[in-house]
UniProtKB/TrEMBL annotation:
PANTHER family: MOLYBDENUM COFACTOR GUANYLYLTRANSFERASE. This is Molybdenum cofactor guanylyltransferase. It catalyses: Mo-molybdopterin + GTP + H(+) = Mo-molybdopterin guanine dinucleotide + diphosphate. GO terms for molecular function: nucleotidyltransferase activity. Its cofactor is Mg(2+). The keyword Nucleotide-binding applies. The gene is mobA. The N-terminal domain determines nucleotide recognition and specific binding, while the C-terminal domain determines the specific binding to the target protein.
């Protein structure tokens, strides 16, 4: 498959341990639908294709056409291992693509103009575009040059904490600010992430308000 210049591939990173949730976050239901399904629906119109990086999931019954692939490095090496896998997947399956988008599996309200705004922010081919909102960086939600794959693979064993921010800040970066989502009951961060059962309850409350606002 070939990515058009204005539609890079996207990968949802679902390779974490979900320790604070107590169960696999990728299997959660939000509003009666799989969390992954909701994120796919938001990303698919923006991307040349959507894949899932997971060390647990083998396939998606609700989306059989979606590619699922594990980390390319062993040992649950953190989100940057997922980013590396996303780069390798994009290079293999979308040879025309120069970049790949990643988002975490626990952000159900990811902006519908994420890719467009990332790409508008780029000023050079090797730049990383990173999402920000309300003054906070969301480093796993980013547009990555695929050309960084070999460098990232060599970096992973050298950074003890494998911090996403550390790798990003050692490169040219474009911080892309996204506005909060205004609803009838207050504002919601578009990168609100579900880490705990309490967060899932909060997302359930926000979901119908956001859906009403987007209609």
């Amino acid at each position: 498959m070939n990515a058009s210049p204005d539609r890079p591939p996207a990968v949802i990173l679902a390779g974490g341990r979900s320790s604070r949730m107590g169960s696999d976050k990728a299997a959660l239901l939000l509003g009666g639908r799989p969390l992954l399904s909701r994120i796919i629906d938001r990303l698919a119109p923006q991307a040349a294709g959507v894949g899932i990086n997971s060390n647990i999931i083998a396939r998606l019954d609700f989306a059989p056409g979606i590619a699922v692939f594990a980390d390319t490095v062993p040992g649950h090496a953190g989100p940057m291992a997922g980013v590396l896998s996303a780069m390798r997947h994009a290079a293999a399956c979308f040879p025309a693509a120069s970049h790949v988008v990643t988002v975490p599996t626990d952000t159900p309200f990811v902006p519908r103009d994420l890719v467009e705004r990332f790409q508008r922010a780029l000023t050079e081919p090797a730049q990383i575009a990173v999402a920000c909102s309300a003054g906070i960086m969301h480093p796993v939600s980013a547009l990555w040059p695929i050309s960084l794959a070999d460098e990232l693979e060599h970096w992973l064993p050298t950074d003890e904490k494998r911090r996403v921010r550390s790798f990003i800040e050692s490169h040219s970066m474009a911080a892309v600010d996204f506005p909060l989502i205004d609803t009838t009951e207050g504002s919601v961060d578009p990168f609100f992430n579900i880490n705990t059962p309490a967060d899932l309850e909060t997302a359930e409350r926000w979901l119908p308000l956001i859906e009403d606002m987007e209609r």
